[in-house]
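Service request form, structural biology core

Requester: graduate student, group of Dr. S.
Request type: structure prediction, single chain
Budget code: on file
Notes: please return the result as structure tokens.

Sequence provided:
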Amino acid sequence: MISKQTIEEILARTNIEPLISGYVSLKRAGDTYKGLCPFHSEKSPSFTVYPKTESFYCFGCGIGGDAVTFIKQIEHLDYPDALEFLAKRAGITIMEDNDKYFRRENRVDRDRVFKMNVDAANFFHRCLMADNPSARAALSYFTEKRGLSLSTIKHFGLGYAPDSFDQLMNYMTSKGYTKDELVQGFLCGKSDKGTYYDAFRNRVIFPIIDVSGNVIAFGGRAMDNETKPKYKNSSDTPVYKKTRHVYALNFARHSCAETLILCEGYMDVIAMHAAGFTNAIATLGTAITSDQARLMSRYTKRVIICYDSDEAGQKAAVKALRVIGEVGLEARVVSVPGSKDPDEYIKTFGKEKFAEVLNGAKIEFEYKMESILARHDINLPQERIRALASLENEISAVYSEAERDVYIQMVATKLGVEPKSIRTDVARIIAKNVRAQRQGESQKAHRTAMGYMDKVNPDFAKAPTVAKHEEAVLGLLLIYPEHRKKVFDGGFLSQDDFFTELGQRIFAYIESAYRSGDVFTDLNEVFSPEEVGRITKMKLTRMNLTDNGDTVLLESINALKGSMQKKKAETASSCEDLSALIARLRSTQE
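Core staff response, request fulfilled:
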């Protein structure tokens, strides 16, 4: 374990506002800072940073805590690794001493995985440049078939995995890595019989590098068209989650302040960088995710989606428009005419023509309108009505009235319909949707108040009144040392006074911290990030109230005990009723 003194020093040297500012664009709002939450998609800021308490909380998704919680969530690290991350940032060396400070048993050494991936990337690159027939064939794929220069190949660290059962494994074990480490890093596989083998064989290799410059994974394309799958990517490892990373963002982030170009595959990205479009990126063998969109939003204002021109590519573009728009980015789409993908277009028509294609990127509504009209023969009245209905539904989902008016004019001109008629239909659809939304929000608010949607504290719904009083008492104890002294020295409360399992654990943690000197440094080790968020909310709720003195403490304790006694009485009565029912059933059977 890392000593509490070291943890306190790490937190003392970590100012939460500049830390979070490295990931989220924050604006001052009085004594706090606000921004768009990096953990869920939103267009209105609900993520708040509190410099006075060195904490944060999102009122949209409920995630909150301190600097350690933030780094755990944003970097997807466990507790010790999050502390190591902050320690390095603060210039603190954590001593690896089994007696006192830090243990690595049963957990992954991320730095070792990074080093292992670098060694593997160097191996693959040397294999590509080797003087043998298979290496020359792999190099020819890049240089002759794909038209890449040697400088581009070196820039992206491209490589080749030999058609061998264990060549990489033998090389890596000779450098001191164990076979199990190689399996954990998805460089080797292990059969049911216990045989180890290279994960990538006879494939050209694309190293995947994160924005910090770490080699985190690999993609491999088969050298022949018979091998399936054609593209093979690293599975999730201790340093890599494919839904959270973006290919080539380590390069693109230096030139993407205004726009990122989102492509489908590695070669599209590499071809575009080689042609001077160094703001090109791609997702990693999966449809775009919210995590990837939020990662993009840290570096740019606009994303141009440039997917393949086939039906699958265009369907993927529609989804990408929605996901990217949800994180507050402007999204546009281009269709690559006369080619199946950007790589082919650039080779056929040149980079100047491709720049013209990018300049003609369509906004979301324009792209959807063209897609809808392409599905209907608007020369037929019934088909025109169906197309109009679809377009009116799209317009009704737009928040800005002025923006809606622009789209109404576009549709009216295209379909030869009076704008006034479309405007009336759109207003009717909006009114209907608002009624449905209000009804849904009312039902959701009721379920939330009763705790039916509470995944963090599932016991809440069983006794909402007791649970609310629990949170009031715990909030007071979390904030005020004088209240902790009164409660724990006076024996006013015990775990038995709490109904929910979460409430009992939080109370026990606060008491343990009080007995050991009011040290709350290991909160992130004891509780999950979601539970830390709930604890943060309890504290914020009490801090926003003007009166949190002794009278309020006493009233809250009495309210908790009273509601708990009532709950126990109700439970006992229910048990008695059930016992009586069972007795009657037995007597009837006799």
